[in-house]
Design goal:
The structure holds 2 protein chains of 2 kinds. By secondary structure, chain A is α/β, with parallel strands linked by helices. Chain A has 34 helices and 25 strands. The complex binds iron/sulfur cluster.
Chain lengths: 936, 1055
Amino acid sequence: MPLPRLHVLPWDQPLVRSAAAWLSAGWSGKAPLDLSDRLVIVPTRQSGRRLREALAALAAVRGQAVFPPKVVLPEILATLEAPVAGLATAMEGQLAWVEVLRGISLDEFRDVFPVDPPARNFAWARRLATQLLRLQGTLAEAGLRIGDVVAVASAAGGGFPESARWRQLGELERRVDAALAARGLRDPQAAKIGFAKAPILPPGIARIHVIGTPDPLPLALSILEKHAARLPVDVLVHGPASEPVDALFDAWGRPRPDAWAARSVAPADFTQRVHLCADPAAQAARIVALARDYAAPDGLLAVGVADAEVLPPLENALTRAGLPAFNPEGRPRRRDGLYALLATLAAFAGEAGFEPAAALLRCPDVLAWLSVREGGAFSPSALLRELDELTARHLPPTLAAARAHAEEFPRVVPALAALAELQRALTAEAFPASAAAALTLIFGARRIDITTPLAGSAEAWTDALREAGTALAVFGASEWTLAEKWELVLQQFAESRQAAEKPPGALDLLGWLELPWEDAPHLVVAGFNDGSVPEAVVGDVFLPEALRVRLGLKTNAVRFARDAYLLAACGASRAAGGRLDLLLGRTSAAGDPRRPSRLLLQCADAELPARVARLFRSVETARPNLPWARAWKLHPRVSPPPARVSVTALKDYLACPFRFYLKHVLRMGRLDPSKAELDALDFGTLVHAALQRLGEAEALRDCTDAAVLRDFLLERFEIAARARYGADLTLPLVVQLESARQRLRAAAEVEARERAAGWRTERVEWPFEFPLGGLVVRGKIDRIDRHADGRVRVLDYKTSDTAKEPAKAHLRPVRTDDAAGPEWRVFNDVAGKARVWSDLQLPLYRRAVAPEWGDAVTCGYFNLPKAAGEAAVAEWADFSRELQAEAERCALGAATAIAAGVFWPPAELPAREDEDWAELFHQGAAASVEWEGRIA
Amino acid sequence: MKAPGHQMILASAGSGKTYALTNRFVQLLAGGAAPERIVALTFTRKAAGEFFDEILKKLARAATEPAYARQLAREVDATALGPVDFLRLLRAVIDAMPRLSLGTLDGFFARIVRSFPLELGLSGDFEVMEESVARRERRRVLRRMFTAAGEPDDAQREFIEAFKRATFGVEEKRLARVLDGFLDRHAEKFLAAPESERWGEPAHIWPEGCGWLADAGRREQAAKTLRAAWPWAELNEKQRTRLEMFFLALPEWSPGAPLPDAVAYIVKNAFLVWDDLRRGRADFTLERKKIALDAGACAALVAVVSGIAGAELARRLEMTRGLFAVLRGYERNYHDSVRRLGRLTFADVQRLLLPAAGAPVLSGDEAGEARLLVDWRLDAKFDHWLLDEFQDTSFGQWSVLRNLIDEAVQDAEKRRSFFYVGDVKQAIFSWREGDPRLFREIFNHYNQAEPGMIAEGRLDQSWRSGPAVVAMVNRVFGDTAALREIVPASAADTWAREWREHVSAKPQPGYAELRHAEDEAGRFAETLRILREIEPLKRGLEVAVLVRKNDTAAALADYLRREGKLAAVAESDVPVAIDNPLTCALLALLRAAAHPGDSMAQEHLRMTPLGGLLEAEGMVSRDALTARLLAEIHTDGFAGTLEHWLRKLAPVIAEDAFSTERGRLLVEAAEAFDENGSRDVAEFLEFAERHAVRDADMAGVVRVMTIHKSKGLGFDLVLLPDLEGKTLAERRDGLAVQKAEDRSVEWVLELPAKLFYERDPVLAAHVTAAEADAAYESLCLLYVAMTRAKRAMIVITEPAGESVSRNFPKLLETALGETWSEGDPAWWRALPLIEKAPAPAETLGALAGGEAARVARLLSTTPSGTERATVGGRALFALSAGRAAAFGTAVHALLAAVEWKELQVATDWPAGGMEAEAVAEAQACLDAPALAEVWTRPSCDLAEVWRERAFEGVLDSVWVTGVFDRVVVERTVTGAVVRVTVYDFKTDRVEDTPEERTRVIARYARQLETYRKMAALLTGASLAQVGCALVLTAVRRRVELPPGADLAGSGERSG
Ligand code: SF4
């Protein structure tokens, strides 16, 4: 067999420049450097790019340019010039597997499926298909198919414990091949393996060079071997000039595992160049600090990222420091904006729920579409505000339900109409035409710059969509749900990568395998931890290491040799005039321990204990535990006090003047975007509404039959509930409304009792207002009752979880911090104990009714708590004129203070009682705010 | 090789458990075991990491220090070993690093499941979810359940019914919250016993029958009888009122609700004379006076009380079954939409392997029906087992490993071994199913089969604590009499059985004391006072304050920082996104943008520097804020967006390291969130608000943490100011879960009130056992707390005094007396105050003389990248869009095959794959008179044509890379260039109008200009000699581009 010629490019020089020089050897410089008859094999896309750049630069020195060689990666060799017609696409392959997996009798394949899966649905089949396709891909690297495994593994001798399983897997593969063949398709891996037996070269190629490619796939080598029989093949390794090359590398330039397994490869000045950091964030911080030391890092510094976990914190830290960075790998489209839109659309297409609809309306692309549809007056914030209001008020379960309520929200109407149109587009046609229709609807009116990421993503998306269209047509898609079809395409889209262009001067962030082709004099590699470098695979569903060895697949020993060699090469080319630093983390971002790379422990025995001590020492955490500090104090604007306050607002003022100010003057209020059920207020409102109707029902005024009252209440309740929430209820609403009914049933019992005892309701929802201390106090009394004997009482409905006692709800004992508060809140009760007003509702109700009903009115709560048995009227038993006087004194004090604009200081509440304001107040309310208004 | 035998080690706190474990590992290595054949498992990844580090350090030290090597060799029973051998072992461990099975139980289980997904019924690979992700999944499942609208289907109806039953008598108005609570408390219980007959099924709870249940329906009738039978005449006024109140209140009560006082009073008193009542003669106490009841009254009272109890029990059973149905309803949904898609929690992973749940047994020796051979797939053969913290191992975990360990223990050739270590006195994780009884059970199990099979070892010498501390521990925990006074006797006896007097191996000066303070404020103040007096940080002492709850830790740390200006850190999970103004404002920014109606967020922004920033950015209107922020989030994700705004805020917080760090942590959290691709602001906010970061171990601070977190740690000085609380025997609230000897669940019941359960033998027995377990665990907790100190420990409690609570203060007072101390109260005075200079920050340093070594980096471009155009969204997203590109590629390929027209025959074009349409278009181009010149060999001396030819070059310092479609080079006979023509094929569907041509020229001008320059460079021609033309294939037209057509734009493109 003709062997390639092995050349050494001395590794004390950067590989990329040596390679370019080698390729241009003999070039006169008078004409363009014409390498178009060469095929060059390099390990990665980025290395190819680097090589072409170096050639261009080299030619430019002589004022020339280059006709470049054809530069390819080893894995391309098996498809180069191969006919593409009739090959199954990835999706077709997947569908073929799905079809077979769904169709087989599992009993025939008990060595593969010892137990039945929980559900043999598409999701199951698709996940399994993905895994089996990956298995086929891995085997194909060595030119094998599943069906070959038993023979090859057994040939290695020593028995093969899983042969029955592999035979059955082979049978599955055979059936998949047949399923493809029935549609005139071929498995692409099988095609590759076949092609490798008689490979073709592109026309005009006269020489092949394999450059700096330490682990080409076995399949690629078998192809190269065939080419080598016909034309010269050179293998260029970046290695030491001083050592015999074939001791270190095999004929194809692969590091020999035995030669590298024990070789010392870490930088010589170990303690200066190997840096133990706490975690990924600490590594990122070091790199940022270093990059800042360079005025213009690009061209001097390059960063290798061996552990992907370091990448996000590093990218963010660089951004924060204002240093542009560039990752040639691009980013997965799963993190793309378009993906977010598509995923929401998929959910919207697949289910009737309102949630995805609302999510769509928060998507900028959809907002842009609406803006075009609606013209100049469109306001995204107004739309979203109304949308939230509608959601909070009506809790619509579906888009249709939402539309039924939309007329109260004029801006929502056209938006929901647009979504309905979108939904029609998504369902009217067959997939994928429907998906395309939906997107053209959204983007149709926009013009998009073809250089933007969106344009690139759109292309990747339509490609996937078209591929899916073909695949689904070929395999018959009737059994697939719309959601599954979306999922099929989204998955492929999500896994594709979005490559951007390098911003000028950006710092390169390179993967480990790219590094030998990097020539920046200072190279820093982060994430130098075991498992990342050297890469190791342990345990596998199908291909454990023992089997990999037998099958000639890439083994851990081979990976180790490759990585050891790469580290040595990166160091050697910077030994003179350059610098290599290695950073490694003691823990992962989540705080789990990580081990240093074994490559760093590959040293002379004498040195090993010291290295262990150094690499396993504990490091101070990078996360400084700094004393809590306040970034700033809040500066609330100062607004004039209100002229009118409600009784409830007064209660808030008693609790805390400043929170009163925020809530009732600045009108601050939290909105719960994930509201999925009634809140306390909604619940109370519904119950109130029914009770109010009962109070107003003249015909039932003297009715004491609990059953009649109950029926009336329930009927009114039904009307109110339906008006607000429609007929389609979500699960929580069903439960909550039932709970409300239950409470109303209890209310009917109580009401009947009260009536039987002589009480009649005189007024319901009676509004009042009166002046007080420069303010107008207003309120609405739930009901005013009069007894046959002339007594009068005011009642307030309470639907809180537990029954309330009026006295406890209005008064509380003194706390130490009350001493600093205004004296009008405090008084001594009959027992001589100091009490503090926390609410004034019932006394103020009494005061409001006094002009008409006199001052002998009693007051209390009509409690409807969650324990239905505890529903009852709770009167304020020992309410007295004295108490009334105290309450009014307090009310006057509060009203006067409000009118005077006294909203400071705030009360200091324990955090758990202050959830409403938690985002504003940290470590004390007063300390959090710089108040510029009046101070008490 | 030498097998070291099987061993159980009971290791008291500080007695060197890790030391024993690492020695065992070394011993196995020394005996010739391959490192990858040793499985060493513990509970936390941190502990596993430390374990590995310790082994390496031990071996490294032995490799370099002969004296230490001798000591280690002795300890591991391999006296022949010297430094060289230890070096060899060190190398062996390092080489085996990726193959080691040294980690957590969770990780080990996940590894097995990952290797046998199909055998375990999974459909391929799976993902272990972080807790926050699992929580989000739960929320989504609930949402989906909730929003399924329309007429409720059967499953939903069933769910609603179940919910009502589970919450009987209380009309819950917040379903989501109640349900969330159910799931938090009971989901695991459901999964442990998913069979309906275990839940609230009387036949399982009372196999002998339950008398009360039979009376459940009879209380009304019985009440009538009782009223009639009662000796009213003998009652005084007060008693009569009492009784009337009872009869009045009884019908008001509904089972499940608390008994009204008036009812409870009578029931309680009836129970006091219950046996007499049943016998038919009883003196019933009413208002402190006894009333003699005759047989009729007795029987009636028994019937009423029994009816009440029965009704209550029946209701609890019903509620329990309702709860079961609720959990099942949720679980079904969760299972279908989360687990089945391969998203599992660690608990799920473990459950897949439980033999009790039908999982195949793991084996290292043989595969077979219902057996998984782990060796082959895991690339590992396990000979030796080391289990750490064994008291925390759950029965489930043990049942997964049991067969593998069995095989090791039963190994006929005794080549394999089992070693487990732990401390049953530190069993504080029963809520995570830790099962300290296993320790002995396993030992007994093997040793019954073959006496001496497992050797028992004990470590009771403390290498951590000094004599004073040890004295206090011995005094409290060695005093069985005192223990028996405070905790149930069975708990005290269990404790005493494994207790051994501790001995200090560290004879250093120290101090231990019990002292008092009045209330919480007093205990906090005392804590601060002690820290101020001793100044431990300045003396280089490690100090910890241990408390019961995370909240207390946070509050106390805060107090120490605020009042004492001490560097105190609460080692709890800190909600970093909401504990400070900066990140709260950033969250408000997101909220305000996505939810413009949130007036809290809007107004909040205005109060912060962000308000000014927004104004400066021209984002005054809400529309501007919404549009800009949502777009940022959409394209850059949350991390990118937050990063961006943090940068803008940088000047404001430049001096504030704390806030800067908080900002960074928020971005870090956002990175994790972005991973899953969601751009839902509400979802992110919820995630961020819950996101907590564990403050890392810190030197040089007062560490405030819960006792649970302190397990495994040691400190010079420990303060225990938070030992107050209720009785030590208080069982964990919630459902009663009765387990059988084999730990299977026998029954589950929501217990009735104490009044009732203590009268029922079955329930009372359950509660007694549960209380004993709780009391035992309480002792463990105190033991853990009191064994953390190295030199000194000060316990601060409120005086127990007259209190009857059997709590920690009472226990301490019973064992130690009112106050107690030992050692030297001034132990710390001898330690000097040290000034510690902060260590200089390590930096990498730039390359010396770097500039000289700088490599040139060229900006790069491709000619087609200079194309200036926008495209309509409709065209971009149309399904046919890609088709157009494929068509274009096909036409290009066809035309590239044409050298000169006269040489071209149509059949030269391969038909395969190329669509007929493309062939037709290419052919039409060839035939078009307007394009004839393109394909015709010029009449010069030498004509050369480049077809689809790649080039690389540098123009104006920019690296240009591209491909010429077609270039015709005309030369004289000497080779001198006469003329060069660059043709670029465009397959756009254009119309043949002058306007369209102008547009096309504008679009491609820059691109062609680049081609022109490059062609000139490659041929040596002058720019003037190079002609450029577009070939519009759709209209078969050639459009000439005059030189400099795009002068305005040329070369301005930069990156
Ligand atoms: S738990 Fe779910 S995912 Fe796991 S095996 Fe059972 S059905 Fe499959």
